[in-house]
Amino acid sequence: MNLKGKGCLIPIVGVVAVLVIIVIYMISNYNKYVTAEEIVDQKWSRIETDLQRRYDLIPNLVNTVKGFAQHEKDVIKQVTDARAALGGARTTEEKAAANDQLSGALSRLLVVVENYPTLKSDAHFTQLMDELAGTENRIAVARGDYNDSVAQYNTMIKRFPGRLIGGIMGFDPKEYFKTTTESRQNPQVDFNTDGSTSFLFGGSRISLAADGTRA
């Protein structure tokens, strides 16, 4: 091959080398985006599992309350309506809004429970509230983990060249699981040494002594 032919190959080899580097870079970033997206999906799956667990607990809680406070139809309806809204929610935004609605309804239910000492002392009710508070705490932890993973993923695909590469490869920003300040307060169930029990939920607290009377 003469020098003229070699001179023509040099630019071609250079272009091919650049293209190979670009392809390798895009594949590498694609894998990073896929991994980050999978982490987001895994965190979201945890939220959905805990939301479903709470969804399943509500009917038993409502039926227990009805047995002692059947005249409190309005607040009971608020809880059942909020549960139905959560069951029908599809997007992250819809589920976050339904979650807030249900947390608010449950908080109002606890205020009503204050007027029924016999209900507060019922072992089944106490067990349900304990399970519900534990589930709410798991939702709060899962929500924080999910939002952290969304922040990392969104930052990755919004920065250059991630914005360009992510757009080409179909990676879109994820929605945060937003919630109100009130529903961010983790529920607590405290079993005190004197036999009394305290419930903190959505900013509302009820306390009952060992005999079921208000502490």
Automatic annotation (TrEMBL):
<keyword id="KW-1133">Transmembrane helix</keyword>
<feature type="transmembrane region" description="Helical">
    <location>
        <begin position="7"/>
        <end position="27"/>
    </location>
</feature>
<dbReference type="Pfam" id="PF04011">
    <property type="entry name" value="LemA"/>
</dbReference>
<dbReference type="InterPro" id="IPR023353">
    <property type="entry name" value="LemA-like_dom_sf"/>
</dbReference>
<keyword id="KW-0472">Membrane</keyword>
<dbReference type="GO" id="GO:0016020">
    <property type="term" value="C:membrane"/>
</dbReference>
<dbReference type="InterPro" id="IPR007156">
    <property type="entry name" value="MamQ_LemA"/>
</dbReference>
<comment type="similarity">
    <text>Belongs to the LemA family.</text>
</comment>
<protein>
    <submittedName>
        <fullName>LemA family protein</fullName>
    </submittedName>
</protein>
<keyword id="KW-0812">Transmembrane</keyword>
